[in-house]
Write a structure and sequence with these properties.
By secondary structure, the protein is α/β, with parallel strands linked by helices. The chain has one domain: TIM Barrel (Alpha-Beta Barrel), CATH 3.20.20.70. The protein contains four helices and nine strands. Strand 4, helix 2 and strand 5 form a beta-alpha-beta unit. The radius of gyration is 16 Å and the shape is globular. The structure holds S-adenosylmethionine, ligand 2KA, iron/sulfur cluster (SF4) and magnesium ion. The ligand Nc1nc2[nH]cc(C(=O)O)c2c(=O)[nH]1 binds next to strand 1.
Length: 183
């Protein structure tokens, strides 16, 4: 059984795959407590993989996004294999502190201060920019394909744009779902 906070069909609002239709599986609970966290993830229902796959199969899209809370606390090779057997493309939003199943198709790592990184492969780094003085340059040393800075709850977008113009290795990621009011 795995503890699920919510499961919904929407568009990936953030980062490299922004705009792509996806089923979001939000797992309950997290091993970090970021003061800026925009998600209430603690509550949840225990679900069998059979129930989970049935819910996922109800939607026509190919992409499934594992998120949370911290999905790394709940997933394993078996779940990824089962989603692949349904023909799904498996992406994850993770804080990077957990060792992940290697077969995941896309790893979005959003490293957090004080969270020791244990991920072996990162496709996209996506750092929440909370304000001037935050050390984000060190995250550019992580081996990844893309490096995004994301404003905190769309509140400091101007500041992030100015930072990126001065440090053009970064790209902007907006939480577009918040701008267009979809889940
Ligand atoms: C809610 S977290 C869940 C996955 C995982 N725990 C993590 O932090 O990556 C999903 C994404 O939202 C980002 N996020 C959380 N709170 C945010 C906020 N207030 N503004 C912008 N992004 C935020 C996280 O950094 C992460 O990239
Ligand atoms: N539309 C939409 N895109 C998202 N990308 C990452 C999300 C998350 O909470 O992990 C998220 C979310 O909650 N909604
Ligand atoms: S690691 Fe992710 S889910 Fe956990 S508190 Fe931080 S932003 Fe929220
Ligand atoms: Mg979110």
């Amino acid at each position: 059984m795995r503890k699920i906070n919510e499961l919904f069909y929407s568009l990936q609002g953030e980062g490299f795959h922004m705009g792509t239709p996806a089923v979001f599986i939000r797992f309950s609970g997290c091993n970090l407590k970021c003061d800026f966290c925009d998600t209430r993830h603690e509550s949840g229902t225990l679900m069998t993989d059979e129930e989970l796959l049935e819910r996922v199969s109800a939607f026509p899209c190919r992409m499934v996004i594992l998120t949370g809370g911290e999905p790394g606390l709940w997933i394993d090779d078996d779940l990824v294999e089962k989603l692949h057997a349904l023909g799904k493309y498996v992406a994850i939003e993770t804080n990077g502190t957990c060792v992940l199943p290697e077969a995941i198709d896309w790893v979005t790592c959003s490293p957090k201060q004080g969270g020791k990184l244990n991920v072996k492969r990162i496709d996209e780094v996506k750092v929440v920019y909370t304000g001037a003085g935050q050390d984000v340059e060190s995250y550019l040393a992580l081996p990844a394909l893309h490096y995004f800075l994301q404003p905190c709850s769309c509140s400091n977008t101007e500041e992030v744009i100015a930072y990126i113009k001065a440090h053009p290795q970064w790209r902007l990621s907006l939480q577009t779902h918040k701008l267009i009011h979809i889940p």
